[in-house]
Design a protein that fits this description.
367 residues, alpha+beta, 2 domains, 4-stranded mixed β-sheet, 3-stranded antiparallel β-sheet, Flagellin lysine-N-methylase
Length: 367
């Protein structure tokens, strides 16, 4: 099986007690059956605690969170009681594998790390874009000839676009003005007959011609901003901060670009230095979804809206008062705002299938 993964993948190590935004907080822990068998064999006080805390619902096992939102085995030191007592082998699969993600399609697999982990995202922001290619044992499901064709072309599309990313302008409008035609051209070549809802009554060749002729496009106009607010109202709120972000965005109904231009030079550079890193993350993670969706447009939709949200949050949080900023729990110390915002956004959106579908099926450029 051919595999690909970001060059930082094998460097990642959990920072445990040093983590400011622990994955052992805020998430109910699902326990797979094999892990439950291992947990059942643990004796002593820890074994008794496991039996007390482990719950079952409709044949599914899980550890509910404590009243303070922590995993029952998270110690004040930030370390895991299970690991300290029994070693890492005692962990259930979801804890042992996070933030690692594996996708398999036919005889191709890709590995990467989820942006909802702050240490993983530090690697993502520093990533130079190098992808490691290797071979491992194993085979995925057999693909039809058409599916194999789509896989080959989708990977070729990603590789070709990958080479261009570093050369795109870092201005938000200009970046996406150059990026969107790449997706439209890929769509016309790989999925010319797609009946995806985003393609409804929109001839792809006409769209491509139109966008190739544009010299500028107001992605952050008043109309686009209304669409930006609209998709958020359809999203499931997991953390109360998401509601606070929505209220902040509605309170200041101003073109984010105007606010961006009022930022200090250092803050503007902070963003411009990260837009390519963000694009690489979403492009690598989600391009394969185009095969399931039979269209590249939903991938662009997810990529665009995710970066737009992070950009807007970054701009607004740097133009409001310190008191308003303190209302949001995702900021810690002096770390880059882009990191803290992107990690929060990933936790809120990427771990909820409904929220992901919302991003895939609502392309504001078409609304």
């Amino acid at each position: 099986m051919d595999i690909e993964y970001p060059s930082y993948y094998e460097e990642f190590r959990c920072i445990a007690g040093k983590c400011k935004d622990s994955c052992c907080r805020g998430w109910c822990i699902d326990v797979d059956r094999e892990s439950k068998k291992r947990l059942d064999r643990i004796k002593g006080p820890l074994g008794e605690k496991i039996k007390e805390k482990l719950k079952e619902e409709e044949g599914n096992y899980y550890f509910p969170l404590e009243e303070n939102g922590d995993c029952p085995f998270l110690l004040k030191s930030g370390l895991c009681e299970m690991i300290l007592s029994e070693g890492e082998d005692a962990l259930c699969n979801v804890c042992a594998s996070y933030p690692r993600v594996k996708q398999i399609y036919g005889n191709y697999a890709q590995y990467d790390l989820n942006a909802s982990c702050e240490e993983a995202f530090r690697f993502i922001l520093k990533w130079d874009g190098r992808i490691v290619r290797a071979v491992e044992e194993g085979m995925g499901e057999k693909l039809s000839r058409e599916q194999e064709r789509e896989l080959i072309h989708v990977l070729a599309f990603r590789t070709a676009l990958w080479e261009e990313l570093s050369y795109l302008p870092t201005d938000f409008n200009a970046f996406f003005l150059h990026l969107f035609p790449f997706f439209l051209e890929g769509e016309s070549q790989i999925f010319p007959q797609s009946d995806h809802p985003l393609r409804k009554n929109r001839p792809i060749h006409e769209l491509l011609t139109k966008w190739q002729e544009l010299e500028e496009y107001p992605f952050l106009s008043k109309e686009r901003y209304s669409a930006f607010l609209k998709w958020q109202d359809k999203s499931t709120e997991i953390n109360k901060d998401f509601g606070q972000w929505k209220e902040l965005f509605k309170k200041y109904k101003m073109n984010p670009e105007i606010r961006f231009n009022s930022l200090s030079k250092e803050k503007r550079l902070e963003w411009e230095n990260q837009i390519v890193a963000l694009c690489r993350y979403y492009l690598f993670r989600y391009t394969l979804l185009s095969i399931k969706e039979t269209s590249l447009l939903p991938v662009f939709s997810l990529l665009y809206q995710s970066i737009e949200w992070i950009y807007t949050a970054f701009v607004f949080i740097n133009t409001v008062s310190d008191e308003e900023k303190k209302q949001f729990s995702c900021f810690f110390g002096e770390e880059p705002d882009v990191l803290r915002i992107a990690v929060f956004f990933s936790k809120e959106l990427e771990h909820d299938e409904g929220n992901i579908r919302n991003l895939l099926y609502f392309l504001p450029l078409f609304n």
